[in-house]
Amino acid sequence: MKTIERLEQLRTLMKKSKIDAYIVPSSDPHISEYLPDYWKSRSWISGFTGSAGTVVITNKTAALWTDSRYFLQAEKELAGSGITLCKIGIPDTPSIESWIAFQLNKGDVCGFDGSIYQVNQAKNLIDFLTKSGIKCDSSADLISKIWLNRPSLPMGNAFLQDLKYTGKSVSEKLAEIRKVMSFKGANTYLISALDEVCWAFNIRGNDISYNPVALCYGYIDNNQAILFIDLNKMDETLANDLREERVTVKSYEKVEKQLSKLNKNDTIFIDPIKTNYRLYKSIPKKVTVIEATGIVTKLKSRKNSVELEGFRQAM
Asked: What mean pLDDT is reported for the chain?
């Protein structure tokens, strides 16, 4: 199926769903830079295969934003698709929000899939469009309904990274994380970025090419640490190793339910740049949310002696 046919399928579904503009970013639920094939929705719908870009489709028009690395490639791959190239960083190139506001009328609806949209970006988009009288629907996953031969979710096995490479055990890292949580005034911490979850729980995986990570979320409070991961990725050895480190393992999709259980006495710490909007929205409004650069982001940037030696050996 050609790009133009896919766009027509999407527009038909948009009309049925009463959506006047639909945004497809280059992202996954973990706001990753490199994506499993399953989440390469923007590439599938637009025909543009560069690693960075966002496409917006209305009932009559479409545009794709990408940076200077891909200007020539995008012009070639978008040719004949009806999608206009918007060159990021070039004077007079409109922002995604302003372009949508120009294309739509008051009362129209802009849809996007909140599960693959960064918290900060979603907030800015909604704030901008609301001021223009345009409504937003962050629950619109339209791509799944028309991508019939979509690649399956990655199912690579997860495994424990040996202490001789990490330099610190999971329990030691959890103690450091909880110390910072206490200092920040939080009793709960959600980790979404794959590299950060894998660092905190000393696991590795094979779910993304050239990235030794597994699809998972980390949840830490004062009393427990939970790894949310597809249980089929786990073998008994890994399960036992995590159990010994007092880590509970739950199914990947149960992370939202866990967040919904928080109450008014809880304060959760999240990184709004690395957390998706759907998870953010699943946190009850009565819960206090601290939004800042991730705790693990800073902790894992300070390499211990074992990690430093690993760098030397690798080089």
From this structure: 96
The residues pairing with 289 across neighbouring beta strands, listed in sequence order, are 268
**What sign for the dihedral angle of Cα 12, 15, 21, 23?**
negative
Q: Is 179 helix (H, G, I), strand (E, B) or coil?
A: helix
Q: Is the pLDDT of residue 14 over 80?
A: yes
Q: Quick one: which H or E segment has residue 191?
A: strand 188-191
Rounded to whole angstroms, how far apart are CA atoms 67 and 88? 5
At residue 37, the pLDDT reads 94
Give yes or no for residue 1 having a pLDDT over 90: no
Where helices occur in 132-245 by DSSP H, the ranges are 143-146, 163-166, 170-184, 194-200, 236-244
Look up tokens 């490479």; give the residue.
Answer: 165
The pLDDT tens digits of the residues spanning 191-228 come to: 999 999 999 999 999 999 899 999 999 999 999 999 99
Do residues 59 and 14 make contact, with C-beta atoms less than 8 angstroms apart?
A: yes
d(CA 61, CA 227) in angstroms, rounded, equals 43
Strand partners for 110: 21, 136
How far CA 38 is from CA of 46, 167, 201, 315, in Å, comes to: 15, 34, 25, 33
Computed from CA positions of residues 190, 195, 197, 199, in that sequence, does the dihedral angle turn out positive or negative?
Answer: negative
Report the C-alpha gap between 166 and 255 in whole angstroms: 26
Please work out, in degrees rounded to the nearest 5, the angle formed at the alpha carbon of residue 111 by the alpha carbons of 279 and 154.
50
